[in-house]
Amino acid sequence: MKKIGLSCFEGFKCKADKCRDSCCIGWEIDIDEAALEKYRNYKGELKERFENCIDYGENPHFILGENERCPFLNKDGLCDIIIDSGEEMLCEICDKHPRFYEWLPGITFEGYGIGCEKAAEMLIDSDKDIYFTEQEIIDSEDESTPDDKCFIVLDVLKKSVRLIQNGNRPMADRLMLLLAFASNVQNAAEEEDYQIIPQIIDLYSDEAFMTKQLNDFKRFKTDSWEENYKKIIEIYRSLETLDERWHKHLDLLYNELDVVTTCETTGDRVKSWENMAIYLLFRHLPAAYFDEDFLARIKFVITSWLTNGLLMRVYLCEKQAEMAAMYSKEIEYSDENLPILLDMAYTEDALSTESLMGILLKLRGI
């Protein structure tokens, strides 16, 4: 079994009481059976609290207290369960959060969700190129080995990341090339012609080919770019929201579109978005192994840049991680919003390949 991660998250450690947006507030935490058994049989100082602060019904969970705080989150922002008995006493969700996983045969993708303040800071503040970390692990319960499709998905992911990390090209160019690459891969997948995908990957390693592609993309130039752009913002505004500040940010983008889209795009601000795009690719593209939907996920990366990516540039650098975390919680952590955006990739004209190309061309100044 191979475990793949992102270099920027190495050395992750919870900020605990220093976190300004604790994951122990506002989240109803379900309790797995193994942890529930520990809590039922506990004999120590927390016995009475385990009895009174857990709903032992059909879906066992901690009963949130005042201001939706976990009943075991103390006034110093620390976990009384850890203080009393150590991390091994935590339920599975608390022990694993903010990690996420995608399991393919013989390969596990493991990362840290940037809805977590610390993970967002590690991602956005990284000034070095992010790379994949790989580790061989022994898992007696899973002796599966990667099949050909696993390696194709992994190669598509790696090529997508390299396109994003091509610092010799403006971000809009990188995203146009990524979109074209995804369209070609999607066509091959739909025709079940996986053998041609390595050739597609090779093409998008040829600088002369990509330069010609960028010139060919000029055919997508349109006067409707602003209308299409605002429709994308409206789609995001129509989604379920957790924090009203997110809608205020979208309103700023909608009402000041010309200002936001002409903000400075050099230096750290480009690097921070490059990092976030890589994170989104790493988190969401491997799932194409199961539904073969490469294109919708790449479109999601692009619309993320057109919304939160550009908004991140408006704010001071120290606020960028906060914006990234907010976006992640509003979209990635929603069981409704992310599937809606993936479905709309094929049903909304504003999210068509032609529309996205037209917007990116305008942002490129063409």
Structure write-up:
With 366 residues, the protein is of the alpha+beta class. Helix content is 53%, strand content 7%. It contains 18 helices and six strands. It has a four-stranded mixed sheet with strand order 4-5-1-6, with helices on one face. Strands 2-3 form a two-stranded antiparallel ribbon. A hairpin with a 5-residue loop joins strand 2 and strand 3. Helix 6 packs antiparallel against helix 13. The longest helix has 21 residues. The chain starts with a strand and ends with a helix. The mean pLDDT is 91.
Q: Which features would summarize this protein structure in a list?
A:
alpha+beta, 366 residues
Radius of gyration: 22 Å
Q: What does the overall shape look like?
A: globular
* Helix-strand pattern: EHHEEHHEEHEHHHHHHHHHHHHH
Q: How is the largest sheet built, in terms of strand order?
A: 4-5-1-6
Task: Give me the count of strands.
Answer: 6
Structural class: alpha+beta
Helix content: 40-55%
Mean pLDDT: 91
> Main β-sheet, in a few words?
4 strands, mixed
- Give the N-terminus to C-terminus distance in angstroms: 47 Å
Low-confidence stretches: none
Strand content: 5-15%
Tally of separate helices? 18
List the helices and strands and how they pair.
Blueprint: E1 2-6, H1 33-40, H2 47-52, E2 54-55, E3 61-62, H3 80-85, H4 92-96, E4 99-104, E5 107-112, H5 117-124, E6 132-136, H6 148-164, H7 171-190, H8 197-203, H9 207-216, H10 225-237, H11 244-255, H12 257-260, H13 268-284, H14 288-291, H15 294-314, H16 317-332, H17 337-344, H18 353-363
Parallel strand pairs: 1-5
Antiparallel strand pairs: 1-6, 2-3, 4-5
Helix pairs in contact: 5-16, 6-7, 6-13, 7-15, 7-18, 10-11, 10-18, 13-15, 15-16, 15-17
